[in-house]
Amino acid sequence: MTPTATGIAPETNSIPTTTTASIQILGEMRPRYDEILTPEAVAFLAALHHRFSGRRHDRLADRMRRRYEIGNGHDPRFRDDTAHIREDAEWQVAGAGPGLEDRRVEITGPTDPKMTINALNSGAKVWLADQEDATSPTWKNVIEGQLSLRDAIRGELSFTSPEGKTYEVTAEETPTIVMRPRGWHLTENHLRFTDRSGREMAASGSLIDFGLYFFHNAKQLIENGRGPYFYIAKLESAEEAKLWDDVFTFAENYVGITHGTVRATVLIETLPAAFEMDEILFELRDHCAGLNAGRWDYIFSIIKNYRGRGARFVLPDRSEVTMTVPFMRSYTELLVKTCHKRGAFAIGGMSAFIPNRRDPEVTARAFEKVSADKNREAGMGFDGTWVAHPDLIPAAMAEFDAVLGDKPNQVDRQRDDVEVTAADLLDVHIGRPITAQGVHDNVSVAIRYIEAWLRGLGAVALDNLMEDAATAEISRSQVWQWIHQDQRTADGALITREYVEGLITRVLGEVDRREGDRFDDAAAIFREVALGSEFPAFLTLSAYANYLTEAD
Q: Taking 50 as the threshold, does the pLDDT of residue 11 lie above it?
């Protein structure tokens, strides 16, 4: 543990004044951690928390109220009080910063040294450096991910595996880095914030991830011809977007860079946010590059908000909820139309299929699925897309090259043909059954993912798909909803807690057990979040507090 660092909290562009607001480091200071947790950087974190932690808590309270309202029959709708923003055709967002003009293929992944090097050598246009759903937020991953990024941005990163293999960045042109900090709801328990009144609380994961990356790298990124760019996750309202915009402005002033240097791409991955895309762009307009269709968390958000609203809101097997079902197509078409109207990029979603170099059939299927997915997105007007594996970049690139040609994007393609109503966004009827295999797969994938997450892995290859926390959230949420809505499988079995307990036992018998594995803990977490009478908003909240922080 290091001594408390006092925060500097400039309220304006004037000389900063010292306050009693502070950040205390509770995590172990391992080799090189002092290069990230410098007194100056920790003071910046304290300043961010002094200025914004209260508003963060207000926004989280707003989320709870809105979720309660939806659960009690008040459907989300396009806001009356912001209709003037939607109807004003004149305003535009800042758009692409240097290095973001062409985003046709982006690769996503965690920020450990090996994955960082692989991403920078991948040939993608952009790398989503993920400190969120693809990173298990152990103290080691949080700080050493920052070290990887710091070294990579300065051309100093290399990695030698335990087997003695050396990895280095060899690409002549590396992807533009867009870093994704944790969402507003997540805390960082290894850092503790004390406010001016002496109240102590866990630090915000969002402000920690953003603050450390920005403080250490913003000026170096500008010198490199790029900039401090961010993917913003889990937003639910324009007010949350305004909070991020104010964070960006404050940070720019703090380190002395031009207002608007930061660029943010917002993931539209919650149901409430789908009704406020114009407003989110508007609040972030000085810093906004675009929106992304965060498809997997969007499905999770649908289930979470409508889990108690009756059988008509029950979704079938997870594999049946594709991007071509009506409510998913409506949401993505509205996203493209909204973005292009405002000069913003529309970035497509993750294709989770990955190749298997030992299984040609699996690899061929992955290429086929990815090509079809990216062909659909490019045809809809998206300006780029995500893949999870470097081998899939050429297939995705080919589909966007065929549509874009020499153009860097298709922002000029206005989707005036698209008309999406609130009813379209809420029409979740698919007309497919829940199968016994679908229930089993949800239990199996969730437990296997959670077990890996507890061991510090956030992006995990399961059943030839690259999965992150969103998959576990969908899987456990569906199980919870199926139980509470008295659903049956296609062969007539009632899905009860006892039925699922039998599947948990079966799954624990199917996995390869080894000394030190976390399957028993994973099963306990799954029981808590899928079989309990209450529905936790995120499985990662209690799992982090009760299992990950203690073990780290």
A: no
% of the chain with per-residue pLDDT over 70? 96
Taking 60 as the threshold, does the pLDDT of residue 246 lie above it? yes
- The whole-angstrom separation of Cα 204 and Cα 211 is 10
* Catalytic (active site) residue 552: no
> What's the whole-number mean pLDDT along residues 422-440?
96
Strands (DSSP E) found in 48-199:
105-109, 126-130, 158-160, 166-168, 176-180, 187-194
Q: What are phi and psi of 195, to 5 degrees?
A: -85, 180
62 classed as catalytic:
no
**CA pair distance 156, 168, nearest whole angstrom:** 9
**18 pLDDT higher than 80:** no
3-class DSSP state for residue 268? strand
Measured N-to-C along each axis, helices 469-484 and 295-306 cross at an angle, to the nearest 10 degrees, of 30
The CA radius of gyration of the chain, in Å to the nearest whole number, is 23
Torsion of CA 180, 186, 188, 189, to 10 degrees: -160
Given 373, 468, 521, 552, which residue is catalytic?
A: 468
Catalytic-role residue among 180, 295, 307, 318: 180
Helix (H, G, I), strand (E, B) or coil at 8: strand
